[in-house]
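Input record (one chain):
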Amino acid sequence: MTAPRNTRYRVFILALAAMLLALAPPVQAANPPAVSDRFMVSTANPLATMAARDIILKGGSAVDAAIAAQLVLTLTEPQSSGLGGGAFLLTYNAADGTVASYDGRETAPASATPDLFVRPDGTVMDWTEAAEGGIPVGVPGVIAMLEMAHADQGRLPWADLFGPAVALAEKGFLLSPRLYEVLDWVEGPERFPAFYAQFYTLSGERKAVGTRLTNPALAASLRAIAEGGTQAFYQGAIAEEIVAAVNDAEVNPGVMTLEDLAGYQAVRRDPICTTYRTWAVCGMGPPSSGGIAVAQILGLLERFDMAGIAPGSVEAVHLVAEAERLAYADRDLLVADSDFVAVPIEALLDPAYLGDRSMLIDPSVSMGIAQPGLTADDRAAFDDDSNLGFSTSHISIVDMEGNAVSMTTSIERGFGSRLMAGGFMLNNELTDFSFEAQADGLPIANRVEAGKRPRSSMAPTLVLDQDGNLVMAIGTVGGSRIICYVAKTLIARLDWGLDIQAAIELPHFLNRNGATELEDGTALVDLVPALEAMGHEVKLGTMDTGLAGFFIEGGTITGGADPRREGTALGR
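The corresponding structure, as predicted from the sequence alone:
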């Protein structure tokens, strides 16, 4: 009897997959991990890493060091994060083995309505238009969040943490090749006078690599916050500068008030902690979709012997991509700011639910576009992120007492809204909302509402062993791809046993419930024919990540930083 055509097709696919699996190249990191038996710091910028290291050597906690790093990043990596943005922070307390999470996400001003990004003629702005000027600026939250975390877990005085950033702002730092490169992405910089004056010459050229950049305005802001706490940021001269920058913007003037700033509050939230094989993996809950989606991806893959699959093989890419399809299908429909929308977190993470969903993954053929596994009668799916991850930053730190931080921080796209106030860039995070309020007659969960926090994909992550001991921290940049980058790196370290640097450097592959995306210029390109034969639409592209993390094993801490950016990991 002749085998049915679809059976012969599957046999062919499995044979081709097996051949490519056998040919999967060995995984080697271009750089060795940093090694220490005392502490570890990994950030996206060498000056921030050194500032955090120095704080720890002075007796500071991981939270203290993260604050110092963020303040330096405000100056040295202004395209990615800073006082004008927001962040999510996970902490591990070695004394009692607990994980805490802090929400410093920006909020929409009180004047914001669901038609925030609708033009006067009723048409909806495109993302590039909406991302500039005053309209997309949310009320910044990072400094309030850091003050809250410092009150809980800081060790050194608040003001002492500002010294490194103030000194660099006053004395200057050398403009890096990375900063020079991203300045070229800004079209029409002269439309934003403060930004233009800081980074461009009088003749209109980008300031050259190696130029010593000072920022007296930022130094003054930092001194004020060091002395007066966050009240000096949310009230008084700095708040007035922020409001003026937003409302008087030459491009897309917005409506933000001093009351919006004075009313901002960071929030302590319950972390998302689930088990994966012998580990507990903890992430950030709503308004971030990162913790839920990463946990779902891992749970969907748990029935597969991932340790027996070669990294970089067609089988690895296929299985992870299929799990990601399912996680993104749920995410896109169900997750938004839980203060405004009921998010079924327990149902989404229920092992029985994930087990049933996992059975939709066929090891030999792609499912195509996945459908959500739960329903929400009162809402419609919201739009995907347009931010490609040119901004955002991540910090991973473990101090000498074993306390740790995993913190992802952002101003959205490169240089945020391109507006400056008080010497720092202002975010354009409100573009993480859906630009439309309804779809198919139903309200969109992530629509704009006053006081609401836009849905995020940031996924700072901590991993504990079965005894509750900290073993890993990881996080990255990358817009809506962040979830996939973090999941890949967790699998690479926990299942495939790669060291933390090799796991970070491993070529990226992902699926956001559409095309399967592969990092161009890597060995993954050779997998395109096999993946297409399995039913994947494949796209190649640059993946500009900034992973930062560490792993602890046998008393030794190894640290890694993404060579795709200028990050460094240091211990001692």
